[in-house]
Design brief:
CATH class of the largest domain: Alpha Beta
CATH superfamily of the largest domain: Aminotransferase class 4, branched-chain amino acid transferase, N-terminal domain
Bound molecules: 4'-deoxy-4'-aminopyridoxal-5'-phosphate
Order of helices and strands: EEHEEEHHEEEHEEEEHEHEEEHHE
Shape: globular
Radius of gyration: 20 Å
Largest sheet: 9 strands, mixed
CATH architecture of the largest domain: 2-Layer Sandwich
Structural class: alpha+beta
Length: about 325
């Protein structure tokens, strides 16, 4: 469920008023760019996981589409804080999924040329309960192939790119699966519909290389901490058949976090249950996003400065506390 307050073009407004006209260009042509970010509850109050990296990708996605976002990264950071503070906690917990979207507004008619159209920016929040995914997911290898980098920028989070993901996931759901894995045009494993894929074989972590995937921030997080812990990780092309012979598979993404995959096209993977390496990665990820790992806390978490009277949290270091919003 979306939170009651939305940030739109510099103002916080009620969700019911944050609507778009039916002729909105982006609705028809997929020319919108967006992000999926998480705010987690920590001992020091609400913290946003890898916010600068997400905003950097938002600006990159917009640049691919020749869209100029009418705000700076600093202004969007403050906007994210503001809408979170406005919505407050859900049952006393600061866990939010954050969805900034930049889109081409309606203009005169339905012509595709949007050079003179208004660019709008909105930030929507959703409160997500912590999902228990230890049962593991059953996925389908999709009949749809991942769109090639010659046809779009697969590293950009462009709304139109998600037609590819939607075809795959809706097919999978209709056939009773939880999700889908897409192969690339050559037949190598690309990624999930909104997640990257890791395979574990003899304690080594393998993940498809950049090229035909959106190489996610979660994928980078996992590669980084596994490497720091001394595990062997390799970014290499994986044949479809290698999925079936692997010991464990998990998907990862901002929304999915770390999700075990225990069945593919009905075949059992490994022991058919969440494996020990997946459990370890899930635990580490959970500790890191909740600020319980000193090594990554200041590096990857942006703490939201709370108005003094509201928080009973331990105070945040001076340099991690950021000045209050100057925006209206
Ligand atoms: N692949 C696709 C197609 C996605 O939509 C996402 C979600 N953004 C991911 C991978 C994972 O990216 P991240 O870890 O940055 O959320």
């Amino acid at each position: 469920m979306a939170a009651p307050w939305v940030w739109k073009d510099g103002e916080v407004i009620p969700l019911a008023e944050a609507n778009i006209p039916i002729a909105t260009h982006s609705l028809h042509y997929g020319a919108a760019v967006f992000e999926g970010i998480r705010c987690y509850d920590t001992e020091w109050g609400p913290a946003i996981f890898r916010l600068p990296e997400h905003l950097q990708r938002l600006f990159y996605s917009a640049s691919v589409f020749h869209i100029t976002i009418p705000y700076t990264a600093e202004q969007l950071t403050e906007a994210v804080w503001r809408v979170i503070l406005e919505n407050g906690t859900k049952n006393g917990i600061w866990n939010w999924y954050i969805r900034p979207i930049v889109y081409v507004d309606s203009g005169l008619g339905l012509k595709q040329d949007y050079r003179t159209r208004k660019i709008s920016t909105a930030i929507i929040l959703e409160s997500w309960e912590k999902s228990n995914n230890s049962r593991g997911a059953s996925v389908q290898i999709s009949r749809w192939r991942r769109i090639p980098p010659q046809s779009t920028d697969v590293e950009a989070k462009i709304a139109g790119n998600y037609a590819n993901s939607e075809l795959a996931i809706q097919d999978a759901l209709a056939q009773g699966y939880d999700n889908a894995i897409l192969l690339d045009l050559r037949g190598f494993v690309a990624e999930g519909t909104g997640e990257n894929i890791f395979v574990v074989r003899r304690g080594i972590f393998l993940t498809p290389p950049r090229g035909t995937i959106l190489s996610g921030i979660t994928r980078d997080t996992i590669l980084t901490f596994l490497h720091d812990q001394g595990f062997t990780t390799r970014e290499e092309a994986l044949e479809r058949g290698e999925l079936f012979s692997s010991h464990e598979i998990f998907s990862c993404g901002t929304a999915a976090e770390v999700t075990p995959i225990v069945r593919i096209d009905g075949a059992i993977i490994g022991a058919g249950i969440e494996g020990p390496f997946t459990i370890m990665v899930k635990k580490r990820y959970d500790q890191i996003v909740h600020g319980r790992d000193d090594r990554y806390r200041d590096r990857w978490l942006t703490f939201i400065p709370l108005p003094r009277e509201e928080h009973g949290y331990e105070s945040i270091e001076e340099e991690t506390a950021v000045p209050n919003s100057k925006m209206s």
